[in-house]
Amino acid sequence: MANILVVFYSRDGATEALANAIAEGAAATGATVRLRRARELVSDEVMALAPGWAENAARMNALYEAPTVEDAQWADAIIIGSPSRFGLVSSEAKAWLDSLGGLWARGKLAGKVGSAFCSSGSAHGGNEMTSFTLTVPMAHFGMIIVPPGFADPAMFAAGTPYGASAITQNQPGYQLSQEERAAARFQGQRVAQVAQKLTSA
């Protein structure tokens, strides 16, 4: 079965929840899933400026290993998620992508499946742009980009055709809606199924 790597950065937990739902969808196909959280790049002093940031980071870092280059080499598919930061990818998620230059140089990422997901604090807060932007380095890597599209009814209720998403209304501890969770599960399932077909070909 396919090896699926789900890499995410999350500060308040919304992108984490999407990552878990995506992992559930992929695992339901029989795929082997690794779930990894990118680490902070800022100082403790900066983290202290946002209530709950340090505590959430400590909790998530205890639950999820940091993603490595070896994880990317192991994977048949890489699904990466980020909160929208002013309409763009978070620096933490981007730093991990930047670490894959050695694999790119050796052609080790070409032919792998890639997909993206995102959360934002408000409607029109950058979800589509952030997910779309995450696919740009995937194109440079030579990956086969697999978005969820509207290939399942769940995608008409939540998410975007570029990737599953959540809109938190800037609520700390936001809980995904049933529709957001269903869209994320479908994305994980779809990516795992495509990866399996490619690895079996």
Topology:
Elements: E1 3-8, H1 14-27, E2 32-37, H2 44-47, H3 53-63, H4 69-74, E3 77-85, E4 88-89, H5 91-98, H6 101-105, E5 113-120, H7 127-141, E6 144-145, H8 154-157, E7 165-167, H9 178-200
Parallel strand pairs: 1-2, 1-3, 3-5, 5-6, 5-7
Antiparallel strand pairs: 3-4
Helix pairs in contact: 1-9
Give a brief outline of the structure.
The chain is α/β, with parallel strands linked by helices and 201 residues long. Helices cover 45% and strands 18% of the residues.
Protein architecture, described:
The chain has 201 residues and is an alpha/beta fold. Helix content is 45%, strand content 18%. The chain has nine helices and seven strands. Strands 1, 2, 3, 4, 5, 6 and 7 form a seven-stranded mixed sheet that branches. Helix 7 links the parallel strand 5 (113-120) and strand 6. Helix 1 packs across helix 9. It is globular. The mean pLDDT is 96.
Task: Give keywords.
single chain, 201 residues, 7 strands, alpha/beta
Which geometry do the CA atoms define? globular
Strand content: 15-25%
The major pleated sheet works out as: 7 strands, mixed
> What structural class do helix, strand and pairing data support?
alpha/beta
Helix share bin = 40-55%
The whole-angstrom Rg is: 16 Å
Order of helices and strands: EHEHHHEEHHEHEHEH
Overall average pLDDT: 96
Are there runs of 5+ residues with pLDDT below 50, and where?
Answer: none
Quaternary structure type: single chain
The span between the termini is 12 Å
Number of helices, where a helix is a run of at least 4 consecutive DSSP H or I residues: 9
Number of strands: 7
